[in-house]
Amino acid sequence: MKLLRRRQFLHLAGGAAALPAMSRIAQAQTYPTRPVRIIVPFAPGGATDIIARLIGQRLSERLGQPFVIENRPGAGTNIATEAVVRATADGYTLLLVNTANAINATLYDKLNFNFHPRHRARRQHHAPALRHRDKSISSGQVGSRVHRPCQG
Predict the structure, then answer these.
(1) What is the average per-residue pLDDT within 116-128?
(2) How many CB atoms lie under 10 A from the CB of residue 43?
(3) Does 106 or 127 have the greater pLDDT score?
(4) Residue 32: is the preceding peptide bond cis (ω within 30°)?
(5) Could you say which DSSP state residue 149 is in?
(6) Of 4, 40, 97, 129, whose Cβ has the fewest other Cβ atoms within 10 Å?
(7) 115 and 103 in contact (C-beta within 8 Å)?
(8) Is there a contact between 37 and 92 (Cβ–Cβ < 8 Å)?
(9) Beta-bridge partner residues of 67
(10) 41: closest CA among 88, 96, 93, 114?
(11) Which of 40, 36, 60, 56 is nearest to 48 (CA)?
């Protein structure tokens, strides 16, 4: 068994002493720390709106912050999608998507965003993503902290 030299021992001891202090500095901020907007691309009272309100209520109960449902109907979901693309990419503006968003990506040539699914179509869980020029907006992977409250 090889003994540690004094310098190696001091490096290890210094690193071990600094580790608890660094873990407090590097801790992630809890999400959410303020209200979250869920933008629904359809009029109030429809199936998509009801689903968004149920999801928002459940997330509010589980995460302790309000999830505000905002309806932005029109242009085949493009108005709401554009609003989310223009919002700050901080995770506090979410878009409830459905097949209309993917269909619009094939119908319209000049959209200010690229809509593409992050997973293969044969999987059950889809995590859509939007790309606007240089910034990318996407949902977390299935099983992440944001998805977990909805999975029962």
Answers:
(1) 48
(2) 12
(3) 106
(4) yes
(5) G
(6) 4
(7) no
(8) yes
(9) 36
(10) 96
(11) 40
- What does pLDDT average to over the chain? 75
**CA-angle at 22, arms to 19 and 23, nearest 5°:** 85
3-state SS assignment for residue 36: strand
What are the tokens at 114? 């690229």
What are the helix (H) ranges across 4-147?
6-25, 47-63, 78-86, 99-107
Contacts of 142 (CB under 8 A, 6+ apart): 125, 127, 151
* pTM for the model: 0.61
Residue ranges of domains in the chain, CATH in brackets: 36-151 (3.40.190.150)
With a cut of 80, say whether residue 94 has pLDDT above it.
yes
Instruction: State the Rg of the chain over Cα.
Output: 22
Residue for token pair 């242009």: 75
85/79 Cα distance (integer angstroms):
10
Q: Which residues pair with 40 in a beta bridge?
A: 71
DSSP string for 111-130: -SSEEEESS-TTSS---EEE
Q: What is the mean pLDDT of residues 46-75?
A: 94
